[in-house]
Design goal:
single chain, alpha+beta, three-stranded antiparallel beta sheet, two-stranded antiparallel sheet
């Protein structure tokens, strides 16, 4: 198994179809559910990225992917995506391989 984890609270990891229109649809969907607004309570702390935190909750910060014979077991069209919602700080992705 491969654990792929975004090591930040304003980024996410997801598996989906690698099709440009779908990626745009996902981005638009997230923006509708968690739009940028100035009145989030989080912004009272001096930050301005509350929407990024909310989007990351919707996408989730990690996924587990099975591996067979050294290759990720993904469907024909599936790919692993890193979603960046803030961009204000350097980020990293952790990949851990578990098992034999």
């Amino acid at each position: 198994m491969a654990l792929v984890s975004a090591m930040h609270i304003t980024a996410g990891i997801y598996v989906n179809d690698d099709e440009g229109g779908l990626i745009e649809d996902i981005d638009q969907w997230l923006e509708k559910l968690a739009p940028y607004r100035k009145d989030y309570k989080h912004h009272e702390t001096g930050e301005d990225n509350a929407d990024s935190h909310l989007k990351a909750l919707l996408i989730h910060h990690q996924t587990i992917i099975p591996i067979t014979a050294g290759k990720l077991d993904l469907g024909t069209w599936q790919r692993v995506f890193y979603a960046e919602f803030d961009g204000q700080r350097d980020k990293r992705v952790l990949v851990k391989i578990m098992g034999e």
